[in-house]
Structure formats: C-alpha cells, structure tokens
Design a protein that fits this description.
single chain, 89 residues, mainly alpha, 2 domains, 4 helices
Amino acid sequence: MIIDCHGHYTTAPKQHEAWRQAQIEAHSKGAPAPRRPEITDEEIRDSIHNGQHNFDDTKRYIDQLPLSAADKSKIFEGNARRVFSRLAR
C-alpha cells in the first residue's frame, strides 16, 4: 500500500494577496500588470509555519483506520523508507 503524503502551499504573505488582487483588476481592465511585491524569505517561512498543516497530517487519518498497530507501523515505516531511501541502508 502506498499512501500519498504531500503538501500544497495554500497561504501567502499579505502583500502577495494584495498584489494578486491588483493583478486581476489590471488584467480585467487591459492594463499592465503591477510590479511584483518584495517578499522576504522570512515572510514566506512565517506564512508556511503559521498557516499550513503539519507535514505529518496523514498520520491522523491512518490512525483512524481499523488497522492493527503493527500494520500502521508498517505503513509509516514503509512509506518513510520509500521517500527517504537512505533509511534503507
């Protein structure tokens, strides 16, 4: 069994949201797009840490399945070994 666990960046710094709205409005008027906003790496990190689910959010779903503890362990360990092949060494 392979369980897909990945993330999507679904939040953004406020200045990006304002720029995106201005971009949409400019496009609808046939005007040039606004300049991209200056966004620091720290602002991007903050938007991820304060607005995203944990990377291990699949675990809560697996834990609700009617599987034995041993089977759940096999799923987590097996997936980890597939993703991080250096663990198999």
